[in-house]
Amino acid sequence: MHSLSRSKNLYLLVLSNFMTSIGQGVALIATPWFLINSNDGSAVFGVVAFTVNLFIFCTAPWFGVFVDRYSRKGMMITIRIVLLLLLAALFALSYLEQYQAPLMAMYFALGSLFFILNQSARSAFIQEVFDEGHYAKVNSIMEVEGQAAAVVTGAIAAVMLRHWSLQEIIMLNLGAIFVSLAAVCVVSYQHQIRPSEDKPSFLSEFMVGLNYLCRHPKLTVFVLSSATPYNCVQTGNYLVPIVLVVLLSEGAETLALYEIIFGLGAVVAGLTYACLFSARSPTQVILFNMCIFSLVLVAQSFSPNLFTVIWLALFLGIANSSLRIARNNWLMTVIDPVVFGRVMTTIPSLFLGMKAALIGVVVFVVENWGPHAAIGTLCVFQLLSHLIAWYSYRAGLSYGVQQDALAQDVPQKA
């Protein structure tokens, strides 16, 4: 591909990702707010969030086997069709008033599951379709577009949470996913990685991603440590609404403002990443942004108020997105394409396992000591992870990991 500006695939991928981001955002903003404002809502949502993430942690790695074995475009189309069918079923059931809470829990589960599956398939698709020299630009564009969608979703949420019914929210999601499906179908694509004639079992393929990470412990420890900001952000989907309601006595408009400010920070990161960090290695960028994230959490822990929780979310958005871009660029460079789908599903699944554990701890802390203590818990986790990432970097990641060093342990038949 000679020019990104003339790439029809890039524009279609941006459109598809924009619409799915809106669809996901609708589900992941609306359902926590509705559940938390119901009877015993914070406890119910905590259990739902923990269970959903534990389920995804146990099942999502198998998706990477399909991503590597079959067409990556086909995988993106399949998960959208399945999501449309399940959303249509939820819409039909949403008129049963007595089942509103279980339906919202199922809606949240669908949004969370689609997020991890789509992220893995999209990353593998980008690696296969675009040249290695364009990874940084494409990932930055995807990040800007995704967070721009988060800003739009936050603005929609300001109206949606007050005036829309569950049926109207699901209808918006259905429309967004349908447009995303149409865009993916139009993408021109030729499957480049063919499965071996002697196919290994799904169990052995499932283990490829995990074995790949076990063979490179320094990379694995660094990557997992760098996931804590992401996990804190995701845990914030549960914690921030509780903080706003219990500690700050704020309403839905403030939650929408938080989503907008966080999204704006992420957009700024995507737009400025190439200019600010072009002279730095991805590992240095990751450590720098972990430092920014840690400082904001320290401020929120000492004094949770509208300034630290809402307005400093701008820097959380900048740090989280810069870190994600740097990590994606790095992993796309060092991981062999033959196993990329499996590894890039295993890594987010490990992230989800960590997130499930973190949500479980935060739910316990909220129920026993309140949301202020839960913010402090997130801060402690972040500081510890920052120290571990720094130690891993000093132990041998200062010059990155060469692809041939990683590829030498990849099975020939994968």
UniProtKB/TrEMBL annotation:
Mode of membrane association: Multi-pass membrane protein
UniProtKB keywords: Cell membrane, Membrane, Transmembrane, Transmembrane helix
GO cellular component: plasma membrane
Pfam families: MFS_1
InterPro entries assigned to the protein according to its UniProt record, in alphabetical order: MFS, MFS_trans_sf
GO molecular function: transmembrane transporter activity
Localization (cell): Cell membrane
Principal location: membrane
Record's keyword annotation contains Nucleotidyltransferase: no
Residues that span the membrane, as ranges: 12-36, 42-65, 77-95, 101-117, 170-189, 255-278, 285-302, 308-326, 347-366, 372-393
Name of protein: Major facilitator superfamily (MFS) profile domain-containing protein
Organism the protein comes from: Kiloniella litopenaei
